[in-house]
């Protein structure tokens, strides 16, 4: 009976598991069915999202599988974001992969398998289930990064991601073994109880190694070195996926580990989170200034935004966690929109372009695309009245309320540096002489997706604040 109850709590993962197996069978039976399987994978993600949304509405919390996982509002909110981001990444991919000769049925299956791992990650309440979910997500990601086998850059990206990902997993596993050795359990709740007492040097080392491994997964400085190369080398739809869904899962996992397992020792982990946040903000901002490749610029933008998100975690308060979730939701919409615009940068021969020189004077030749790209850049910079401003505002407000005024001030100052390279993109599109390299897009899916995401990042996005505020508050409360 207990097993049946546990299985009922992980219905989204069960739906995606059976869907992945069925889609694999279909791929073996029906050759060249990549586009059909992509549509079915999006439908499976939609079904999983529907179950997740219904569970989120109830706000209930229940342990599953003897405490290895939990079904709560925080996990359900994170899963909803993951499934939506993955579905968008799948929707925009077919034309790009067909052009590269790489639209195979394995692509959507790997995305679905990765989503199963991410679902386990955000619901994990034990170091064992945490590691299983993390590795399931990572193994799929390594293959996705090198999916275009004919492209040397893609193969290089996959290899770099695999080697450095293995190193990060080893660090996390070593930290988990230290924590287990000193706490006597792998359960987050039991670790939290053990940390109520005096914390020894060995346990502190374990916390540092775990946080270092997770910092790699969210591409936070100083563990960010893989991000620009992998983002540039991986196929653009894969990069869009990496920058959204796995980022949400890894940040949500970090939040749960820090607050549920290490929550009683705020002074131990808060210093680490603040240092990582500030390094990410500054390195992300400064590193992007000299970039000429737009995908590498988006990689540094991702590092920079992770720093701002971590400011919310550094507060250790419900308000800070709710602010993180608000920022994370807006970040997904901004980042996916930016990559949708990048995927429309094709020349007259159908070749994809991704350099600054290619978008010179884009407003004169492709005004609608330039306008959408400008909206995403201004939103990422946090310039009002665009919706990205609200994400930064709530995070800084939470930091000030928690007594971290110096951190908020440094973050605001560093966001000015970050605004430079976002505005540089707008300047090149609107004020440089037209290069006339980019042709009109014939992909209606990209055009419509970009338009919807641009509307979400415009002042229209503020209409979502009441609903988003309620959902994030409920999700944040589940961690406390």
From TrEMBL:
Membrane topology: Multi-pass membrane protein
Origin organism lineage: Bacteria, Pseudomonadati, Pseudomonadota, Alphaproteobacteria, Sphingomonadales
Gene Ontology process terms (BP): ATP synthesis coupled electron transport
Catalyses which reaction(s): a quinone + NADH + 5 H(+)(in) = a quinol + NAD(+) + 4 H(+)(out)
Domain NADH:quinone oxidoreductase/Mrp antiporter transmembrane: 124-418
Gene Ontology cellular component terms for the protein in this record: endomembrane system; plasma membrane
Keyword terms, alphabetized: Cell membrane, Membrane, NAD, Quinone, Translocase, Transmembrane, Transmembrane helix, Transport, Ubiquinone
Designated gene of the protein: nuoN
GO molecular-function term, one example from the UniProt record: NADH dehydrogenase (quinone) (non-electrogenic) activity
Enzyme class: translocase
Enzyme nomenclature, EC number: 7.1.1.-
NCBIfam families associated with the record: NDH_I_N, PRK05777.1-3
Function: NDH-1 shuttles electrons from NADH, via FMN and iron-sulfur (Fe-S) centers, to quinones in the respiratory chain. The immediate electron acceptor for the enzyme in this species is believed to be ubiquinone. Couples the redox reaction to proton translocation (for every two electrons transferred, four hydrogen ions are translocated across the cytoplasmic membrane), and thus conserves the redox energy in a proton gradient.
The protein, known as: NADH-quinone oxidoreductase subunit N
Subunit structure: NDH-1 is composed of 14 different subunits. Subunits NuoA, H, J, K, L, M, N constitute the membrane sector of the complex.
Family: Belongs to the complex I subunit 2 family.
Subcellular localization, as worded in the UniProt entry: Cell membrane; Endomembrane system; Membrane
Transmembrane segments: 12-29, 36-60, 80-97, 104-122, 161-183, 203-226, 271-290, 297-315, 321-343, 368-390, 396-423
Pfam families: Proton_antipo_M
Domain of life: Bacteria
């Amino acid at each position: 009976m207990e097993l049946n109850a546990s299985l009922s709590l992980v219905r989204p993962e069960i739906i995606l598991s059976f869907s992945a197996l069925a889609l694999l069978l279909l791929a073996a039976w029906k050759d060249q069915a990549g586009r059909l399987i992509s549509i079915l994978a999006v439908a499976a993600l939609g079904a999983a999202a529907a179950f997740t949304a219904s569970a989120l509405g109830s706000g209930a919390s229940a342990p599953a599988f003897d405490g290895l996982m939990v079904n709560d509002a925080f996990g359900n909110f994170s899963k909803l974001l993951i499934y939506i981001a993955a579905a968008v990444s799948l929707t925009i991919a077919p034309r790009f992969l067909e052009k590269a000769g790489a639209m195979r049925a394995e692509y959507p299956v790997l995305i679905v398998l990765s989503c199963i791992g991410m679902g386990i990650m955000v619901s994990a309440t034990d170091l064992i289930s945490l590691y299983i979910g993390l590795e399931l997500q990572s193994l799929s990601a390594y293959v996705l990064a090198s999916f275009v086998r004919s492209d040397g850059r893609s193969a290089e990206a996959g290899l770099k991601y695999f080697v450095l990902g293995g190193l990060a997993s080893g660090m996390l596993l070593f930290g988990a073994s230290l924590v287990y050795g000193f706490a006597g359990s792998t359960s987050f709740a039991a670790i939290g109880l053990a940390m109520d007492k005096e914390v020894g040097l060995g346990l502190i080392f374990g916390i540092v190694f775990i946080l270092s491994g997770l910092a790699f997964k969210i591409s936070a400085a100083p563990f960010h070195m893989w991000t620009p190369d992998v983002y540039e080398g991986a196929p653009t739809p894969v990069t869009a996926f990496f920058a959204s869904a796995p980022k949400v899962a890894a940040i949500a996992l970090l939040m749960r580990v820090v607050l549920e397992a290490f929550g009683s020792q705020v002074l131990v982990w808060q210093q680490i989170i603040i240092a990582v946040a500030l390094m990410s903000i500054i390195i992300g901002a400064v590193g992007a200034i000299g970039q000429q490749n737009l995908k590498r610029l988006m990689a540094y933008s991702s590092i920079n935004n992770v720093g701002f998100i971590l400011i919310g975690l550094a507060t250790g308060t419900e308000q800070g966690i709710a602010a993180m979730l608000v920022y994370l939701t807006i970040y997904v919409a901004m980042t996916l929109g930016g990559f949708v615009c990048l995927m429309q940068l094709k020349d007259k021969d159908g070749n994809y372009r991704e350099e600054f020189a290619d978008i010179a004077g884009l407003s004169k030749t492709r005004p609608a695309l330039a306008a959408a790209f400008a909206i995403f850049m201004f939103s990422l910079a946090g310039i009002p009245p665009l919706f990205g401003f609200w994400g930064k505002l709530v995070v800084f407000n939470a930091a000030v309320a928690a007594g971290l005024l110096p951190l908020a001030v440094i973050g605001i100052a560093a966001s000015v540096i970050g605004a430079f390279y976002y505005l540089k993109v707008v300047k090149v599109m609107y004020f440089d002489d037209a290069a006339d390299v980019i042709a009109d897009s014939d992909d209606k899916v990209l055009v419509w997706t970009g338009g919807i995401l641009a509307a979400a990042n415009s002042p229209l996005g503020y209409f979502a604040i009441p609903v988003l505020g309620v959902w994030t508050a409920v999700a944040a409360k589940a961690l406390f």
